Amino acid sequence: MDSNEEEGESDEEMEEDGADEASSASAAESASPPVGAIPITDCLFCLHHSRSLVKNVAHMTKVHSFFIPDIEYLVDLEGFIRYLGEKVGVGKICLWCNERGKSFYTTESVQAHMNDKCHCKLFTDGDAALEFADFYDFRYE
């Protein structure tokens, strides 16, 4: 008799337990933001911290003239700002130059670039807008 069978677990049950542990570990990893990502309550363009996502968007709009195109069709504001925070904080990518321009080594340098060049806006011409499609719903009602 196998020691696993003595304890009341078959090989199949043990494999299922291992799969459950692996899936919960990967879910926890995907839930935590990548290292360097700008939190949704922090400005994408400066060091300002807001108490809420809505106040943060209001700050970025007022201070940096940030504009979210077609906001009436935006269905996931939190996910949208989180994505932009990863793009700037992790990828060190200017939202306007969008990988077309030079690369940056720090979050501070890409933020300074966006402020200095008035690039506190999204590049959405042509196919570039498809990058943000998951956050919008343009279906006619």
UniProtKB/TrEMBL annotation:
Residues in ZN622/Rei1/Reh1 zinc finger C2H2-type domain copies: 42-139
- Sorted alphabetically, which InterPro entries does this protein's record hold? ZN622/Rei1/Reh1_Znf-C2H2, Znf622/Rei1/Reh1, Znf_C2H2_sf
GO annotations under biological process? ribosomal large subunit biogenesis
Region called Disordered, residue ranges: 1-33
Its cellular-component GO annotations read:
preribosome, large subunit precursor
The UniProt regions of compositional bias labelled Acidic residues, in chain numbering, are 1-20
Name the source's superkingdom.
Eukaryota
Compositional bias annotation for Low complexity: 21-32
Q: What is this protein called?
A: ZN622/Rei1/Reh1 zinc finger C2H2-type domain-containing protein
The major lineage groups are:
Eukaryota, Metazoa, Chordata, Craniata, Vertebrata
